[in-house]
UniProtKB/TrEMBL annotation:
Residues 9-73 form the RNA polymerase sigma-70 region domain. It holds the Pfam family Sigma70_r2. InterPro entries: RNA_pol_sigma-70-like (IPR039425), RNA_pol_sigma-70_dom (IPR014284), RNA_pol_sigma70_r2 (IPR007627), RNA_pol_sigma70_r4_t2 (IPR013249), RNA_pol_sigma_r2 (IPR013325), RNA_pol_sigma_r3/r4-like (IPR013324), WH-like_DNA-bd_sf (IPR036388). One of its GO terms (biological process) is DNA-templated transcription initiation. Residues 98-149 form the RNA polymerase sigma factor 70 region 4 type domain. It comes from the Bacteria. Belongs to the sigma-70 factor family. ECF subfamily. One of its GO terms (molecular function) is DNA binding. Keywords: DNA-binding, Sigma factor, Transcription, Transcription regulation. It comes from Paenibacillus contaminans. The keyword Transcription applies. This is RNA polymerase sigma factor.
Length: 228
DNA sequence: ACTGTTACCGTCTTTGACTT
DNA sequence: AAGTCAAAGACGGTAACAGT
């Protein structure tokens, strides 16, 4: 029975492979891998001499996946909720496209709130915390932004806004992460739009162990993760 | 006109007690 | 153990008002 070494990267890859077998979904697997790594970390802290066999590791992953499914209440909630990597089913694509246009018409703060809550499924509380606002302000700003979004959708976004004006020069992942770190709505907006222009999408954004974790996807389909 | 805050309301989820 | 149900809490939305 092969023992798992302390090489975190190797361990992560192994768990990811198990997760892919269980979930058949890359994003779910990344989530599951994070969960399992956390469980393994806790297990090791509780018992440093614990033997983490492959079978045991697989069991942990499987149980974690079952827990996830339970919480998600599969009967009432589609599996791809909040995820945008399901081929052919991109329910949030229109929101994303509208959002990118909207970003040129709304204040940065409102756009970022819409981005966080309607695209990345942040709660009002989380968005408020990130932007140093009250929950009420976030909710109202969101409502107003949504109204504007609907209005623009109704009018067919008739004038495709010129996206050249004001485009910043240095727009990369670090800029976006830094913008989030500094809680600067304008910078977040700029960086996000810059990436969108390069056809690089932030396909997922979530808190993992208290840190913001960004999942990017480039035009070639390459996916990578950046943690703030 | 725009933005932030507060109060209030409706909906959904969670939790605990109770019954089968 | 499993199912049911009511209470409590969390959450999102809206209206009204105030400040800039």
């Amino acid at each position: 029975m092969p023992q798992l070494g302390l090489d975190l990267q190797a361990l992560k890859q192994r768990i990811y492979r198990y997760s892919m077998q269980i979930t058949s979904d890359s994003w779910e697997s990344e989530d599951l891998t994070q969960d399992v790594l956390l469980k393994v970390h806790n297990l090791r802290q509780a018992n440093p001499s614990i033997e983490l066999s492959n079978a045991y590791l697989y069991k942990i992953a499987l149980n974690a996946w079952k827990d996830k499914l339970k919480k998600r209440k599969l009967s009432s909630e589609p599996l791809d909720d909040g995820h945008m990597n399901v081929p052919g089913i991109d329910t949030q694509l229109s929101t994303r496209e509208l959002l990118e246009d909207l970003a040129y018409r709304l204040p940065a703060r409102s756009t970022v709130i819409l981005l966080l809550m309607d695209v990345f499924d942040f709660t009002a509380k989380e968005a408020a915390e990130l932007l140093s606002l009250t929950e009420g302000s976030v909710q109202v700003a969101l409502g107003r932004a949504r109204q504007k979004l609907k209005k623009l959708a109704r009018t067919g976004m008739e004038s495709s806004v010129s996206k050249q004006a004001g485009d910043p020069a240095q727009l990369d992942f670090e800029a976006l992460v830094e913008a989030f770190r500094l809680r600067d709505p304008k910078a977040i907006c700029r960086s996000y739009l810059g990436l969108a222009k390069r056809q690089i999408t932030v396909s997922k954004l979530k808190y993992i162990n208290g840190k913001l974790t960004f999942y990017f996807e480039d035009p070639d389909g390459n996916r990578f993760m950046v943690t703030s």
